[in-house]
Specification:
The protein has 2 domains: about 15-90, Arc Repressor Mutant, subunit A; about 95-225, Muramoyl-pentapeptide Carboxypeptidase, domain 2. The protein has 7 helices and 7 strands. The chain has helices at about 20-35, 40-45, 50-60, 95-135, 140-155, 180-185, 190-200, and strands at about 35-40, 65-70, 80-85, 160, 170-175, 205-210, 220-225. α2 packs across α3 (about 50-60). It is globular.
Length: about 230
């Protein structure tokens, strides 16, 4: 994913965000990934003036989507730092989360937790078949990169990194946006099914170290290839 801003992004799904486009939308995505940024950083990234960036941020603050706080390092005047508000998570793509959540609630009520787990695993099996076609002929490192690309295309805002520690051949997958967060907050089985899917696709041991559904800023997966390395 690098340090670039997507030229196009999925539409926001909340009335609060109606009319947000162009630079405001890019600012929201940038803050989603970077977690926080100063005015000058945002202006440079968006290639606009500081005054222009401040105007966009003021509009986002008025809508309750961005918060600002002072940060002081050393002597001199403090600078303003901007970050997304807790309300902002509702404006990112949710992959029809409301409908899906109601469906899972219905299944749980009538079939119990086992029914929810079976349904989620069936969904992951469908995804496995789709993803597998793009991964099957790749080596381990490229499989991780391609999986990150697929998930990014689906709105998760994904980055993959190779561990830099000497002798460590593992990778880290970071998902900065969770389209199913409203489902995962209520049905944790969605997170477990996702981890199982990654393990099957990559033929790897996958440890979930951070989860947005548990209050973390990002979903983070530590990935280590299984010894024989076959998919």
């Amino acid at each position: 994913m690098g340090d670039s801003i997507p030229p196009t992004v999925s539409p926001f799904e909340n009335p609060i965000a109606e009319g947000i486009n162009g630079q405001k939308k890019k600012i929201l995505w940038y803050l989603k990934v970077m977690q926080q940024a100063g005015l000058e950083e945002l202006a440079n990234t968006m290639k606009i003036s500081r005054m222009g960036a401040h105007k966009h941020l003021a509009g986002l603050q008025k809508r309750g989507l961005v918060e600002a706080f002072e940060s002081r390092t050393g002597v001199g005047r403090p600078r303003m730092i901007y970050k997304l508000s807790s309300q902002s998570k509702t404006v990112f793509p949710k992959s029809y989360a409301s409908i899906a959540t109601h469906s899972l609630d219905f299944i749980e009520k009538n079939m119990g937790k086992d029914g929810v787990i079976r349904m989620l695993r069936e969904r992951q099996n469908d995804l496995f078949s789709t993803y597998y076609e793009r991964l099957k002929n790749l080596n381990f490192g490229d499989r991780v990169k391609e999986l990150a690309k697929i998930r990014d295309e689906e709105g998760y805002i994904v980055e993959s990194r190779k561990n830099k520690s000497k002798g460590d051949s593992g990778h880290v997958l970071l998902e900065y946006n969770c389209p199913i967060i409203h489902i995962a907050e209520k049905h944790w089985e969605a997170c477990s099914a996702e981890t199982e899917l990654f393990e099957k696709l990559l033929y790897a041991d996958v440890e979930t170290t951070h989860r947005a559904a548990k209050g973390d800023l990002v979903c983070e997966f530590a990935i280590k290839e299984k010894k024989d390395g076959h998919l």
